[in-house]
Design brief:
Layout lengths: L2 H28 L4 H7 L4 H14 L3 E5 L3 H13 L4 E2 L6 E2 L14 E5 L11 E3 H12 L7 E9 L8 E7 L2 H10 L1 E2 L2 H11 L3 E6 L16 E5 L4 E5 L4 H4 L4 H14 L9 E8 L2 E8 L11
Parallel strand pairs: 1-6, 4-5, 4-10, 7-9, 9-11
Antiparallel strand pairs: 2-3, 6-7, 6-8, 10-11, 12-13
Helix pairs in contact: 1-3, 4-6
């Protein structure tokens, strides 16, 4: 057989393997969804389907909800947040509230780590863990963590939808409170919009979160297994056994850190993603400077 024929056959085999794997992933995912969610999944590209599949096979949810950010989807999220007890109603119509646990009120510096290769430089102010060992530790803790729970998948744009400087962000969580908060803070996308954005930009931030087992008051119970691990080689995060927004709402601080690294590596001198900034704008014959900052609770969208 000629070399060209061998290469042609090999390409055909690889394509068949890819198609076979895609069908396998879809078959598994739809087994955990109702018809409405199956229809929404159909608009996800293979690149978007794969991390959803990886998360679901690892964390073993009882069902999967595809959140498009629509009024109907968010009404369901709000209802479930109340029904599960993660939120409670206030006297003001359509207003709800959530309290984190008394020991889950801030960043966990001991268990917040960057997962990186030995030669990847990390700030001396941050904790670094060898990449492989960190990934194994994170995966061990989140294995089957969503049993008897529903997995919620959201498609988020960290900035104006379609903007070249907005990072597409995939959020996988079992917390309706987290999803509700992200809707208030960020722009949510349909699976079709998100898949197109990922294709245009070539990649996305991938975030896996679970509040873990909850107490009677519906706050995270297993704080001894709380982890906030950020894989800075592949821009994906593993956050578990927590509800505090800075740790659970990945597009906030976690993806802010990813965006900073992505800007330095791939957009140096072109993009910023900062908590605080001073920017100069040339206006006619003078330069006018503006200062800005992103306070607690704002979502840390950064400055493109």
């Amino acid at each position: 057989m000629h070399t060209k024929d061998i290469q042609k056959n090999q390409t055909s085999v690889n394509r068949n393997i890819d198609i076979s794997r895609l069908e396998m992933m879809r078959t598994y995912l739809v087994s955990l969804m109702d018809e409405a969610n199956c229809q929404k999944l159909m608009y996800c590209s293979p690149k978007v389907i794969e991390p959803i599949y990886n998360g679901s096979t690892r964390m073993s949810p009882a069902s999967i909800f595809i959140n498009t950010g629509s009024a109907e989807d968010m009404a369901y999220i709000r209802q479930q947040a109340l029904q599960t007890g993660e939120e409670f109603t206030l006297n003001i119509e359509n207003h709800t509230c959530h309290f984190d646990g008394p020991n889950d009120q801030g960043r966990d510096t001991a268990n917040t780590k960057y997962l990186a290769y030995a030669d990847t430089e990390i700030s001396s102010l941050q904790k670094k863990q060898e990449h492989r060992s960190g990934v194994v530790e994170a995966r061990t803790i989140i294995t089957d963590i969503m049993e008897e729970k529903e997995m919620i998948v959201s498609f988020i744009s960290r900035g104006p939808i379609g903007s070249p400087v907005s990072d597409p962000t995939l959020q996988v969580t079992d917390s309706y409170y987290v999803t509700h908060s992200e809707f208030l803070l960020y722009r949510m996308m349909t699976p079709k919009e998100f898949s197109r954005d990922v294709a245009d930009k070539g990649d996305m931030f991938i975030n896996y979160h679970s509040a873990g087992k909850l107490t009677k008051t519906k706050v995270s119970a297993n704080l001894n297994e709380r982890r906030i691990f950020m894989d800075v080689e592949r821009f994906r995060s593993y956050s578990c056994n927590n509800q505090y927004a800075g740790n659970s709402i990945a597009p906030k601080k976690i993806n802010h850190r990813f965006a900073n690294m992505n800007n330095i590596r791939n957009h140096f001198g072109e993009r910023l993603d900062e908590h605080m900034f001073i920017a100069g704008f040339e206006m006619e014959l003078e330069t006018v400077y503006f200062g800005g900052a992103y306070p607690s609770g704002c979502g840390k969208p950064g400055l493109p």
